[in-house]
Design goal:
51% of the residues lie in helices and 12% in strands. The chain is mainly α and 130 residues long. Strands 1-2-3 form a three-stranded antiparallel sheet.
């Protein structure tokens, strides 16, 4: 019985360690953010861990230098860059816990949420003959 009890205690200790590591990882994920600035420094964007835009900062001269469509394109570009950086950070944090997770397939560019949903199907007609 002593050996069994020792193995159980060891197992509980391992589970507690892993739980603590997961809590720390979750905290780090919650703190993830990335900031991207345009080459000329006119637009700076910061995104959070889920890619949500937290701030967009403009150099006051941006309105004289860029047209509305150019400004829009620069903003989108910086959001994409910052989101990509956050995604890389997320992958780095999660990989030790789920090394076989196809992270790029699940969260990479071109990922379509609908592809993870069950697809509708039409039942095949059955042959009434036995």
């Amino acid at each position: 019985m002593d050996e069994s009890w020792r193995l159980l205690e060891q197992l509980v200790q391992e589970v507690n360690q892993q739980t603590e590591q997961l809590k720390k990882m979750q905290e780090k994920v919650g703190e993830l953010s990335a900031t991207a600035s345009s080459k000329d420094g006119m637009v700076t964007v910061t995104v959070g861990p889920r890619g949500e835009v937290r701030t967009i900062d403009f150099d006051p001269r941006v309105y004289r230098k860029l047209s509305p469509s150019e400004l829009s394109a620069v903003i989108v570009q910086q959001i994409e860059r910052a989101t990509s950086e956050v995604s890389a950070g997320m992958k780095e944090l999660m990989e030790p816990f789920v090394p076989d997770l196809p992270f790029d397939d699940l969260f990479g560019e071109g990922t379509d949420f609908a592809s993870f949903l069950p697809q509708p199907s039409t039942p095949e007609p059955r042959d009434p003959r036995p």
